[in-house]
Design brief:
By secondary structure, the protein is mostly helical. It contains five helices and two strands; from the N terminus they run ααααββα. A two-stranded antiparallel ribbon has the order 1-2. It is elongated and about 80 Å long.
């Protein structure tokens, strides 16, 4: 926070401006409209490098990093992009396998 920001706020709030919300701005938002395309690119080639995505979508490194890591929820494991959390489909499959194992254990006991 700089002195100029504080002075600007003091001038605005001493006058008639009482709103603390951001006003509409023109220009591009910080997130990309290519969100879906980036998801398809990462999902289609799990070994894609951020530099390739930067060139493909003509976006900055920070924007691509935020999109892939924060918005899409991917992380790198052994040079592959993998989802950070389990999807609903993964959770259902894991629950089904757990129930199958539980029922098998109930039927066969310690032998299982």
């Amino acid at each position: 926070m700089t002195v100029q920001h504080v002075q600007k706020w003091c001038r605005e709030f001493s006058g008639c401006c009482l709103s603390v919300t951001d006003e509409q701005r023109s220009g591009c938002p910080s997130t990309s409209a290519d969100f879906v395309l980036a998801n398809e690119a990462v999902h289609g080639n799990r070994r894609v490098v951020l530099k390739e995505l930067e060139e493909q979508f003509n976006l900055s490194h920070g924007t691509i990093w935020d999109t892939v890591h924060k918005s899409l929820g991917y992380r790198k494991v052994c040079s592959k992009w993998v989802p950070r959390q389990l999807t609903e489909d993964h959770k259902k499959k894991r629950m089904g396998a757990s129930l199958t194992h539980f029922l098998h254990f109930n039927d066969h006991g310690e032998v299982f």
